[in-house]
Amino acid sequence: MASPTPKKSAATLLRQLTAEIIRMGGLAEAQVVDAVEAVVRRDVPLAEALIVRDLRLDALQADIERRALALISGQELSGADLRRAVSSLKLAMNLERCGDLARNIAKRSLILSTAEPLLPLMAAIARMGRLVSARLREVLDAYAGGEVEAALAVWRRDGEVDEHYESLFRELLSHMASEPGSVTSGAHLLFIAKNLERIGDHATNVAEILHFEVTGEELSAERPKVSLTDSDLQATP
Q: What domains does the chain contain, in order, with CATH numbers?
């Protein structure tokens, strides 16, 4: 008769969860980078492949949730271990949302690939994409190393992403007002810029989750934000 498989310790299961989160983070970051590339280069095959790859992120989130819930219900966790298990649920959700937003960008890039390119605006999209991808990479590196201060550095610079979005928003509205034929493509680029801004928000969410996981305390300071004015939001081409 085969001997029963030894039960894994909570520490081992938590290490496995962390490894899966890091793997999921790498995939999410690659999705964001490729989504921006698909827009800027009008790369249809890349966009189509990215949309299919998003299913992998969905599967990883489901697997991480299953593991985390099994760990929480099957082990007597407390303190830091419980925070770590609960954090894995929140992290997986935020990374899956990054993947969804990247997929949405890829879908819009397919539409944009059939229209005349708005070349003056592609450089701005590329810059914002590089900034958001860098923030996501930095906070994921901080998570992998358990470096709270590095994560907080990303959190404190969230306003930079908002500033890029605000600048791009105004640039797009101005271009659409002066070039009526660009309104349809410009609207898609507005949604792409908003998706990038939301990915930046998820990067700061990761920083907040890591801070709570390590310290057991919520961030008390208000997240740095830059908001568009009412006149900006009401402006129409």
A: 10-234 (1.20.58.220)
